[in-house]
Amino acid sequence: MQIFSILLDVVGPVFVIALVGYLWARSGKGFDSSFVALIVNAVSTPCLVVDTLTTAGLAPAAVGQIALAAALCLTLAGLSGWALVRGLGQSVPTYLPPLIWSNGGNMGLPLCLFAFGERGLGLAIGYFVVSSVTNFTVGQAIAAGGISYRDVLRMPMTWAILVALTIMTTGLQLPVVAQRSVHLLGSITVPLMLLSLGHALASLSISSFGRSATFAAARLFGGYGIGWLVAWGMDLDAAARGVVIIQSSMPTAVLTYLFASRYNNEPQEVAGIVVISTVMSVVTLPLFFLTVM
After folding, report:
1. What burial letters (b/e) apply to 32-67, b meaning 16+ CB within 10 Å?
2. 32-290 has which CATH code?
3. Domain edges within the chain
4. SS3 content of the chain, % helix, strand, coil (to 5)
5. What is the pLDDT of residues 183-230, one digit of tens each?
6. How far apart are the C-alpha atoms of 112 and 70, rounded to whole Å?
7. Three-state secondary structure call for residue 12
8. pTM value?
9. How many Å apart are CA 241 and CA 255, to the nearest integer?
10. 126, 53 Cβ separation under 8 angstroms
């Protein structure tokens, strides 16, 4: 019974806050999702990256290890996902991104924080950074048929990573006023992400349940298996292993729907995968947590 209490403590707050966003959307009250997305992507998440990576006591080697694990998970998800999509005769630009990129921000970060503490959050951010940068570059390229390296250089996340790594490797410190400002701005990230996730789910619909459910299950269980394979192959310690497996097991990232909508790649199909995988994760995540905690 204790393990279920722990799981409730870990998973419960994530779904409660997302539910608030969902109910807020269903009530018809105002919610400027574009503004929230801009604040999260351009300000609060870069601040969270700098704050956590420079204060969590993580060695650069630990961050590098988790980044390599993330890259391996994404690569394996891409290869297996491509095989599945092609095997089912479906569109690669439509169905491959939802199989590769998981919701490691909105859900993964708070879950790893609640389950593994500040060190877990730091490791989870290392994973999320790799996932986020590749989603904005490779993921967008798959959806659009091209890539802009100039956009990568303009991303606040890119500069946040450089700042954090510089501080970690040189021993430099930000001025106190900057440290506190970065900490306060970073602390709004997780609640805003969860509220926006719930709000976004309220506006998505499912156009083809069977196909969406198939790809949703592949994202969750395939990601879980890949996470275990990478964690075992790299011989990660308990916290790092748990972070990699949980981050790899998250439901489909909402951003894949936004890219599908932007480039007209059957967005309702992708919306169905996002919705179903998120609903399914209510059951799968507690089960996955039982194997890593």
Report:
1. eeeebbebbbeebbbbbbbbbbbebebeeebbebbb
2. 1.20.1530.20
3. 32-290
4. 85, 0, 15
5. 999 888 878 877 877 787 787 666 677 888 999 999 999 999 999 999
6. 15
7. helix
8. 0.78
9. 25
10. yes
* pLDDT above 60 for 1: no
C-alpha 277, offset from chain centre: 13
Orientation of helix 238-248 relative to helix 60-87, angle to 10°: 30
Q: Residue 106 and residue 117: Cα distance in Å, rounded?
A: 17
| pLDDT recorded at residue 148 | 65
- At residue 244, the pLDDT reads 96
Spatial separation of the C-alpha atoms in residues 4 and 274, rounded to whole Å? 26
Distances (CA, A) of 261 to 54, 136, 251, 254: 36, 14, 18, 11
Handedness of CA 9, 20, 192, 77 (dihedral sign): positive
**Continuous segment of H or E residues that includes residue 164:** helix 156-170
Residue at token pair 């994760």: 281
Token couple for 51: 């704050």
What gap in Å lies between CA 285 and CA 7, rounded to an integer?
Answer: 9
pLDDT, position 4: 63
Note the pLDDT tens digit of each residue in 13-32. 877 888 898 899 889 888 88
The b-or-e profile of 118-146 (16+ CB within 10 A means b, else e) is ebbbbbbbbbbbbbbbbbbbbbbbbbeee
Contact of 127 with 247, CB cutoff 8 Å: yes
Give CA–CA dist 78/8, Å, rounded. 32
